[in-house]
């Protein structure tokens, strides 16, 4: 059994956590792709018209993953958390005015955080630019500013308290994210590493093409519909492209082209 207190085990444990995080990213990408299928096709249509070998292999992989992670979940030490009763408003479809108000709150938060961190943020160094240039334009990479908080955390928005009081408990966990993109300023809660940098840059391109207002409008609409951060198409696309970037034999592709294609196909 591993113990983090044992110095001989720290490297294997860090490696294990790294591999676990990579597996989680792949699972999130698969979850997002499956959610898109669910939105566009019924189970009956998939079963009737989908390729049978693909469906069977997908179902078998899902069962195997479920069995594996369920066996792990059974061994996770229990934690006690206060039970909450969902607010009736959380089960009602949001009104147009509520969506607009939420989008204003989010866009204001994004701009405020950008202005807060920009003075201390720095340009990307040449090493990171070289790693990212096959996927992002030189203009974007020159424009981006980054800052590492190294143990500090970005504070969640002040409107989170009001949203949770209304029953929205599944809000994005700002303080637990590796990186956050505030338009063209990327903030790392710990230190800058390639995976969260790539993910953050995808969002920077989305901001660049869509604009802050349209981005937040799409994000809020999708979140209020799905109630899950990871299934918002803007986020799902970032996870999917990051997963492609991390493949053992990565392919070169233009993130901007992919985002423009999703916009044209109305997938956001």
Tally of contiguous helical segments: 11
If you compute it from the alpha carbons, what radius of gyration comes out, rounded to the nearest whole angstrom? Answer: 20 Å
- What is the terminal-to-terminal distance? 45 Å
**Sheet having the most strands:** 4 strands, mixed
Residue runs with pLDDT of under 50 for 5 or more positions: none
Structural class by sheet pairing and helices: mainly alpha
Strand content: 5-15%
Helix content: 55-70%
**Gross geometry:** globular
Task: Give the beta-strand count.
Answer: 4
Question: Helix and strand string, N-terminal first?
Answer: HHHHEHHEHEEHHHH
* Domain tally: 2
Mean pLDDT figure: 85
Strand order of the largest sheet: 1-2-4-3
Q: How would you characterize this protein structure?
A:
This protein is mainly alpha-helical and 268 residues long. It has eleven helices and four strands. A four-stranded mixed β-sheet has the order 1-2-4-3.
Q: What can be said about this structure in brief?
A:
The protein has helices at residues 7-40, 43-49, 52-73, 96-117, 126-132, 138-143, 160-165, 194-210, 212-226, 233-245, 255-264, and strands at 122-123, 145-148, 179-182, 185-188. It has 268 residues and is mainly alpha-helical.
Give a quick set of tags describing it:
2 domains, 4 strands, 268 residues, 59% helix, single chain, mainly alpha, 11 helices, 4-stranded mixed beta sheet, 5% strand
Topology (elements, then pairings):
Layout lengths: L6 H34 L2 H7 L2 H22 L22 H22 L4 E2 L2 H7 L5 H6 L1 E4 L11 H6 L13 E4 L2 E4 L5 H17 L1 H15 L6 H13 L9 H10 L4
Parallel strand pairs: 2-4
Antiparallel strand pairs: 1-2, 3-4
């Amino acid at each position: 059994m591993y113990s983090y207190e044992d110095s001989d085990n720290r490297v294997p444990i860090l490696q294990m956590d790294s591999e676990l995080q990579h597996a989680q990213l792949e699972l999130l990408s698969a979850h997002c792709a499956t959610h898109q299928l669910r939105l566009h096709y019924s189970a009956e249509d998939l079963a009737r018209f989908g390729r049978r070998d693909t469906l069977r292999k997908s179902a078998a992989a899902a069962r195997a993953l479920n069995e594996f992670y369920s066996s792990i979940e059974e061994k996770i030490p229990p934690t006690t958390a206060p039970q909450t009763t969902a607010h009736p408003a959380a089960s009602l479809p949001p009104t147009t005015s509520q969506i607009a108000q939420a989008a204003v709150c989010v866009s204001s938060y994004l701009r405020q955080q950008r202005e807060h961190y920009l003075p201390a943020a720095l340009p990307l160094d040449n090493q990171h630019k070289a790693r990212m240039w096959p996927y992002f334009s030189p203009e974007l990479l020159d424009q981006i500013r980054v800052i590492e908080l190294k143990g500090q955390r970005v504070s969640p928005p002040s409107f989170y308290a009001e949203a949770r009081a209304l029953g929205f408990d599944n809000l994005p966990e700002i303080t637990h994210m590796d990186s956050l993109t505030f338009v063209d300023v990327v903030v790392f809660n710990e230190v800058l590493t390639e995976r969260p940098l790539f993910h953050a840059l995808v969002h920077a391109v989305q901001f660049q093409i869509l604009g802050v207002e349209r981005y937040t409008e799409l994000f809020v609409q999708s979140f209020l519909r799905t109630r899950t951060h990871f299934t918002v198409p803007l986020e799902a696309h970032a996870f999917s492209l990051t997963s492609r970037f991390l493949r053992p034999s990565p392919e070169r592709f233009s993130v901007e082209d992919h985002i423009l294609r999703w916009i044209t196909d109305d997938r956001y």
